[in-house]
Design brief:
There is one protein chain. 37% of the residues lie in helices and 25% in strands. It has helices spanning 3-15, 20-29, 35-38, 51-54, 56-72, 90-99, 105-108, 118-127, 212-228, 273-277, 290-296, 299-307, 312-326, 331-334; strands spanning 18-19, 79-84, 109-114, 133-136, 147-152, 161-166, 169-178, 181-190, 207-210, 230-239, 248-251, 254-256, 266-268, 271-272, 283-284, 288-289, 335-341. The strands form 3 sheets. Strands 2, 3, 4, 5, 10, 14, 15, 16 and 17 form a 9-stranded mixed sheet that branches. Strands 1, 6, 7, 8 and 9 form a 5-stranded antiparallel sheet that branches. It has a 3-stranded antiparallel sheet with strand order 12-11-13. It is globular, with a radius of gyration of 21 Å. The structure holds S-adenosyl-L-homocysteine. S-adenosyl-L-homocysteine binds at residues 28, 36, 42, 50, 52-53, 85-87, 91, 114-117, 120, 152-154, 157-158.
Length: 353
């Protein structure tokens, strides 16, 4: 039995069931056994692949959208160029490279990375070594300056809680122990003030998820953009309002039981964007499908330009990457973009207010 499973079973025995958020937090970030704390999970050899790892075009489009917002806001200098959950640093590398096409942008940027994993911080140091980098555990310690920020597949890794509707109350779905194994259990029906608005669009027995850190982090980013200017492009899978159980585990690019091997699989949940915008004090865009967003920014023209230098297998995989990022049956529709920007500024290109 893994060390983390043993620890979790002992903790449940001593002090009762864990919330899903407690379980997710331990599995992903436990300093000794946590999934992100102990490995680089990305890429073909890892457990999952993300948009920036599929093609440089993704980061190029995001970088140009941020740079356009920076121009629209009068080229503030210096400013914070930040990424939360930067993985291997690939997206930030592509942003910094394409940003050179916009005079003054990279020179004015102070690069800040919010990253919880010591292993991934090392990978980021290696991939972005020619830039001065500053790391943070949390967005709250970013300097008080104009903030241009990206996050891709970050919010889906934040701990959620799950509730099953029971009359006007909610039973929390927890992690308990039975005969040496972890299992789901349901708590008693209780009122949940944070879910009052969901009494309108749910029925008895339906599952609703709530991600408190998603809301707190987005509110903090929005407050900084309101006070100092900037823009944020938040990309994740999910929808305006989520309904049902979206808690899932991925290992070796396949779904596995999220309770079977704590710390060994990536745990995620769909992002509930409407809830994320509730406490945002600045303007925000309509939720835009990733495919639409990238097409509006000119990814097809960029793909055609890059294709000119390619042939054979390289050309085929380049065409497949463009399709994977944009096609509605691949990542184009599942992933959504939410942009935050100052009330008095236009939205970043690619999204509408
Ligand atoms: N954005 C990258 C990586 C996505 S994986 C890409 O698209 O390829 C999720 C990233 O978020 C990893 O870098 C992980 O270590 C980081 N992460 C997860 N939970 C975090 C938390 N609570 N605080 C900071 N970083 C976190």
């Amino acid at each position: 039995m893994s060390g983390l499973k043993q620890q979790l079973l002992a903790r449940i025995e001593a002090s009762g069931p864990l919330t899903l958020a407690e379980y997710m937090g331990e599995c992903l970030l436990h300093p000794q056994f946590g999934y992100y704390a102990t490995r680089d999970p990305l890429g073909v050899k890892g457990d999952f692949t993300t948009a920036p790892e599929i093609s440089q075009m993704f980061g190029e489009m995001l970088g140009l959208a941020l740079a356009q917002s920076w121009l629209d806001q009068g080229r503030p200098a210096p400013f914070i160029l930040a990424e939360i959950g930067p993985g291997r640093g690939t997206l930030m590398g592509d942003i910094l490279r394409v940003g050179l096409a916009v005079p003054g942008f990279v020179e004015a940027a102070e690069v800040h990375l919010v990253e919880a994993s010591p292993v991934l911080r090392e990978v980021q140091k290696a991939s972005l070594g020619n830039h001065e980098l500053r790391w943070h555990d949390h967005v709250s310690t970013l300097p008080d300056m104009p903030l241009f920020l990206v996050a891709n597949e970050f919010f889906d890794a934040l701990p959620i809680r799950q509730y099953v509707r029971d009359g006007d109350g909610w039973c929390e779905r927890c992690v308990s122990a039975s005969e040496g194994a972890l299992c789901f259990s349901l708590g008693p029906a209780l009122p949940q003030p944070a879910l009052t608005h969901r009494l309108k669009d749910t029925e008895d027995g339906q599952v609703v998820e709530h991600c408190q850190p998603c809301e707190a982090i987005t509110a903090e980013i929005g407050a900084r953009i309101k006070a100092r200017g900037g823009a944020a492009l938040l990309i994740d899978y999910g929808d305006w309002v989520s309904l049902g159980d979206t808690f899932q585990a991925l290992k070796d690019h396949a779904h596995v039981d999220p309770l079977s091997d704590p710390g060994e699989a990536d745990l995620t949940a769909h992002v509930d964007f409407e809830a994320m915008t509730r406490a945002v004090p600045c303007a925000y865009s309509r939720l835009t499908p990733q495919g639409v967003f990238l097409e509006r920014l000119g990814i097809t023209q960029r793909a055609q330009a890059l294709a000119k230098g390619l042939s054979g297998e390289k050309l085929e995989s380049h065409i497949a990457a463009h399709r994977r990022l944009t096609h509605p049956q691949e990542m184009g529709n599942l992933f959504k973009v939410l942009a935050l920007f100052p009330d008095q500024s236009p939205p970043p290109p690619g999204v509408e207010q």
